[in-house]
Write a structure and sequence with these properties.
Shape: globular
Distance between the termini: 12 Å
Number of helices: 8
Order of helices and strands: EHHEHHEHHEHH
CATH architecture: 2-Layer Sandwich
Mean pLDDT: 97
Number of domains: 1
Low-confidence stretches: none
Strand content: 15-25%
Bound molecules: cytidine-5'-diphosphate, magnesium ion
Radius of gyration: 14 Å
Strand order of the largest sheet: 2-3-1-4
CATH class: Alpha Beta
Helix content: 40-55%
Length: about 140
């Protein structure tokens, strides 16, 4: 599966605004297969763990509060070249710089509340998929 999977997270801002449906439609239309999906809640502790690479950043506390502020939807996606293609589909983290038609351009409201997460490497994709899903949920 290495190279063929990525982890997406529909962030609390999108869930609150009712964008789960439109975002999933966008993702599936782009050729991604949904292998696993769940709506969950991140505790602050889990949010800190998920974003550990950013723990020294000035935006870390705010990001952790945001990501644990409401339900999220985590999705394990499958496609050839999944990681790179999905990063292209979601666009730049800052919606101001995101290309037209990308998910962040369409649905993000700010650099922090930017609608969706996508893994940035195959190695992180694997780690992040196992953060949200069990082996049994992945390998069916
Ligand atoms: O999500 P992505 O990999 O595109 O960006 P990142 O640099 O790994 O940052 C992770 C998340 O932190 C972003 O998606 C934003 O929600 C948030 N962030 C922020 O609030 N302020 C910044 N200056 C940079 C990132
Ligand atoms: Mg990142």
């Amino acid at each position: 599966m290495m190279g063929k999977i990525t982890l997406a997270v529909i962030k609390p801002d999108s869930v609150e605004k009712g964008y789960i449906g439109p975002i999933l439609f966008h993702i599936v239309n782009a050729g991604f297969y949904i292998r696993a999906l769940k709506m969950t809640d991140l505790s602050k502790r889990s949010a800190k763990k998920f974003y550990a690479e950013h723990k020294e950043s000035l935006f870390f506390d705010s990001l952790v509060n945001f990501m644990s502020s409401g339900p999220i939807v985590s999705i394990l996606l499958e496609k050839e070249n999944a990681v790179e293609d999905f990063r292209t589909l979601i666009g730049d983290k800052n919606p101001i710089h995101a290309a037209e038609g990308t998910i962040r351009k369409l649905y993000a409201s700010s650099l922090e509340k930017n609608a969706i997460h996508g893994s940035d490497s195959n190695q992180n994709a694997f780690r992040e998929c196992l953060f949200y899903f069990s082996h049994r949920e992945i390998f069916w």
